[in-house]
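[step 3/7] fold_predict: job queued, chain A
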Amino acid sequence: MPNPKRDRKRQNRAGSQAAKLEAARKAKKRQTMIRTGILGVFVVALIIVLAIVNSDGGDDDVTAGDDTSQTTATTGEPSGGNDIECDDREPEAPKPKTYEKAPDMTIDKSKTYTAKIETSCGTIVAELEAATAPVATNNFVFLSREGFYDGLKWHRVVPDFVIQGGDPEGTGGGGPGYDVAGEPPRDGYKIGSFAAAKTGADPAGTMGSQFFIVTGANGAQLPNDYARFGQVTEGIEVAQKLESFAEGDGPPSRNLYIFKITIEES
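[step 4/7] structure written:
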C-alpha cells in the first residue's frame, strides 16, 4: 500500500537530482561559451598578426628583389647590364682602306681628344692620352676620322678580360697595312683602359688598327706591352655588356658591331 512519506522523499530526491543535472548543464554551456569566445578572440588576433606579417613580407620581397638586381648588375653581368638592350641591326658592309705607311703626326698634344664609339649595345666614350701617348693617339684618331672602324665587328670578347675590335678581316689577323710603334705604359692598366693590340712577337707598343678595352680584373693584370692611349669615361657598362656575350677567348655568341667612331677635339 502506498507510503506517502516514502513517495515524498523519492520525489524530493528526484527533484534534487534534476536540479543538479540542470545546474551541470548550465555550467557546461557557460564553459563552452567561454571557450568559444576565447577561441574567437584568438582567431581574430591570429588573422591580424598574419595580415601584418604578410604585409611586411611583401615589402621585403620588393627590397630583396631590388638588392638582388643590383648585385647581379655589379658582379654577375656588367654594371647596369640587365637594363641594356643590344641592337640586332647589321650595319652596311665596311670598306676599310689599306695604307702604305703610318699616318703623319697631325694631332696637337696640348689638346684633348675624345672618342665616341657607337656600338651594338650603346655608346662608349673615351678620353685619349694625346700628351703621354701621342703616336698611338694620332694613329687611332687618323683611322677613326677615315671611317676605318665603322661597321667592323668586335671579333674577340673574353670574360673578365677585354673586348677587342678594329680588325677589317674580323679574324684577329687583319690591319691597316702598316705597323707603328706606340707608347706602352709604365703604370699598367685598369678597367676601362683603352689600348692597342699587337701580334705575339712584336716589340712592346707595336700596333696597327686593332684595339681593346679592359673590362675586368684579369685585363688589369696585363704586362706593360700594349700601347695605352685612352681611358673610358662613360659607358664602361656598355663595354661590359658586350663582354657578357663571351664564349671563352674568341668571337662573341652574337654579332657585335662598332657602328661608328667620332673624334671630338677641344
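[step 5/7] annotate
DSSP finds three helices and ten strands in the chain.
Residues 1-5, 41-80 have pLDDT under 50 and may be disordered.
exit 0
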